[in-house]
């Protein structure tokens, strides 16, 4: 598998430029082209929440507000894309493309994501980023493609060092396979396993051997969790290396269970300080 087409969903908010810059760094590593996508909201989305008692005037006013906000965000998203495209140095001189769509947001995001090899999205920076979190879940659960979450700061050294979080699940295997084009060009790769109990036995060497068979340079690291959260351990371990990328499977447990009881994926989706490549 190779990564030749990168999709960047754009919201019309400040994080668009950050996601586009991260996509540029990845495209230059991988020889990929970039497509920007903005899904425009529609007033129809508000209908289920208005109830039967809302008057025609109230409905019309709400529709007008939603359409005005949608128009503003669409202009900002395209402006951010055009400004970035004017200065972006991309491999092969291939011009980036831009798509604006309108309709079912989750469905359109997932549909366009399925037509690409990698999705680059700015990760949520606060509780106010519920819309971004919803977009991430739409492409993560609906596309089958790897999703790169970009933190508030990212450098062109992104993915020079890669930490593969391995827990012997189907999801971690899929994530490792999807990330293989990145692992092949990384300066170094570490397969990290976390011991949550003293008698845990982790078999990481066969995973490193699999990765090395693709021409990468992988070693292994076993980390004792102690009383720390696994998500915190993985992020702190990744932060030790400049430009490091964390690769992990998403929702090894059910999504509902993680949303209600908490889990590693949900912690990462809520907020991450490092770039994270997720695959479900």
Short overview:
The protein has helices at residues 15-30, 47-50, 56-87, 105-113, 130-143, 170-185, 205-212, 230-239, 255-261, 264-270, and strands at residues 5-9, 33-40, 97-102, 118-122, 147-150, 161-165, 188-195, 218-224, 244-249, 276-279.
What does this structure look like?
This protein is of the alpha/beta class and 280 residues long. It has helices at residues 15-30, 47-50, 56-87, 105-113, 130-143, 170-185, 205-212, 230-239, 255-261, 264-270, and strands spanning 5-9, 33-40, 97-102, 118-122, 147-150, 161-165, 188-195, 218-224, 244-249, 276-279. Strands 3-2-1-4-5-10-9-6-7-8 form a ten-stranded mixed sheet, with helices on both faces. Strand 1, helix 1 and strand 2 form a beta-alpha-beta unit. It is globular and about 65 Å long. The model is unreliable at 253-262 (pLDDT under 50).
Please name the defining characteristics of this protein.
globular; 10 strands; alpha/beta; 280 residues
Strand element count: 10
Low-pLDDT stretches: 253-262
Alpha carbon gap, first and last residue: 17 Å
Structural class, by secondary structure, is alpha/beta
Helix content estimate: 40-55%
Main sheet properties: 10 strands, mixed
Q: Beta-strand percentage?
A: 15-25%
Q: What's the arrangement of strands in the largest beta sheet?
A: 3-2-1-4-5-10-9-6-7-8
Element layout with pairings:
Blueprint lengths: L4 E5 L5 H16 L2 E8 L6 H4 L5 H32 L9 E6 L2 H9 L4 E5 L7 H14 L3 E4 L10 E5 L4 H16 L2 E8 L9 H8 L5 E7 L5 H10 L4 E6 L5 H7 L2 H7 L5 E4 L1
Parallel strand pairs: 1-2, 1-4, 2-3, 4-5, 6-7, 6-9, 7-8, 9-10
Antiparallel strand pairs: 5-10
Helix pairs in contact: 1-3, 4-5
């Amino acid at each position: 598998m190779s990564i030749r087409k990168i999709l960047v969903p754009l919201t019309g908010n400040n994080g668009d430029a950050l996601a586009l810059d991260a996509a540029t760094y990845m495209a230059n590593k991988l020889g990929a082209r970039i497509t920007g996508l903005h899904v425009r909201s529609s007033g129809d989305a508000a209908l289920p929440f208005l109830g039967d008692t809302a008057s025609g005037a109230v409905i019309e006013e709400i529709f007008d507000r939603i359409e005005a906000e949608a128009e503003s965000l669409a202009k900002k998203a395209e402006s951010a894309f055009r400004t970035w495209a004017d200065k972006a140095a991309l491999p092969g001189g291939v011009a980036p493309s831009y798509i604006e769509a309108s309709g079912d947001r989750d469905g359109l995001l997932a549909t366009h994501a399925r037509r690409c090899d990698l999705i680059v999205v700015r990760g949520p920076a606060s509780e106010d980023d519920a819309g971004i979190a919803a977009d991430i879940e739409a492409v993560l659960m609906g596309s089958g493609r790897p999703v790169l979450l970009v933190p508030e700061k990212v450098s062109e050294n992104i993915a020079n060092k890669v930490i593969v979080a391995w827990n012997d699940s189907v999801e971690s295997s899929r994530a490792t396979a999807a990330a293989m084009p990145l692992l092949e060009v990384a300066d170094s790769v570490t397969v990290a396993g976390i011991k949550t109990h003293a008698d845990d036995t982790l078999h990481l060497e066969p995973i490193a051997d699999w990765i090395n068979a693709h021409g990468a340079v992988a070693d292994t690291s076993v980390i004792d969790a102690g009383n720390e959260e696994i998500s915190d351990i993985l992020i702190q371990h990744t932060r030790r290396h400049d430009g490091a990328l964390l690769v992990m499977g998403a929702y090894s447990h059910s999504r509902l269970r993680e949303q209600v009881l908490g889990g590693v994926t949900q912690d990462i989706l809520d907020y991450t300080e490092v770039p994270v490549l997720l695959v479900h």
